[in-house]
Amino acid sequence: MDYLLTEDQVMMKDTVAKFAKQVIEPVARENQEKEIYPKEIIQQAAELGLMGVAYPEEYGGVEMDFVSYMLAIEELSRYCASVGVTVSAHSSLCVDPIFRFGTEELKQKYLPDLCSGEKLGCMALTEPGAGSDASGIKTTAKLEGDKWILNGSKIFITNGGEADVCVVFAMTEPEKKVKGISAFVVDKDTPGYTIGKHEEKMGIKSSSTTELVFQDCAIPKENLLGELNKGFKVAMMTLDGGRVGIASQALGIARACIEESIQYSKEREQFGKPIAALQAIQWMLADMATEYDAAWLLTYRASLLKSQGKPYTKEAAMAKMKASEVAVDCALKAIQIHGGYGYMREYNPERYLRDAIITKIYEGTNEIMRLVVSSSIMK
Question: Which of 289, 352, 363, 378 has the fewest CB neighbours in a 10 Å radius?
């Protein structure tokens, strides 16, 4: 697809691909098996500018576009989906809302360290009783003098155990339900901010996923992000960008499945010839490649629209839905092509399947994505 890209975008893609091949691939399996958070890799990614790809230089970013960001996440995820989602959650769910909705004071305070990778970010929206229905959150924020006092807990927070800065959503006027949600920027070292349970997951095992607990957590009044009681809008607009990040992660997983299946099918012999000569294998590979290209183009379109400042809610939902389903399907086909070896942990396809499944769930389940798309096209 390089013919659709600018020289700068191709350079970004090639640079990250080289980094991922040399630095991430050698340790990806061990990190996943031992559930090791890849702190050194994230630091090296920061040195490449990958923690602030699409943000202005004045805030510590690289000042490239969102297509470049999409390409970076795909290349990272090609070798380790955990690294891909760590960078994606940091950029899409923490840096982006601060950049888009923060006051100039908040931007100057937080963005330079976040965009440079000196600090890691996360977003806390999901709660035990509020997943797809974000209006069901119970965490509260009450203004007392010049401080907001946060109380509540969040679950399934990507980067939760490692993040220095968190964008938190809380009820400021619970009686208004969805119209009473506000967003806040919270520092990890704030008293009352506690990291709770570390989740044991099926896949993306070397990323940090935790519970966060806020108990009388007092933050400055000026750390309100966006307008009071307009937090639901902040969350939904932030998730649009997050969905493009997850689509990019899914593309990386799908591409890994395709490339390794092609290589394996050329090397593996049955009936006196490589299985690549068998029509059954060729058709599976053809389907994988075709579906990957379709998902890539949808993700490219959504990324391009975001870069241009145009609406892209529907397109982001389509991209995330399609790419995640392609990733799962490609992983299943990769296992089938590898036969018995595909089921064994010695080979990568079983890990790719475990990593791919979550892309259909977080940043909005694919059932919710279908609601987003249908509501858009039926207006």
Answer: 378
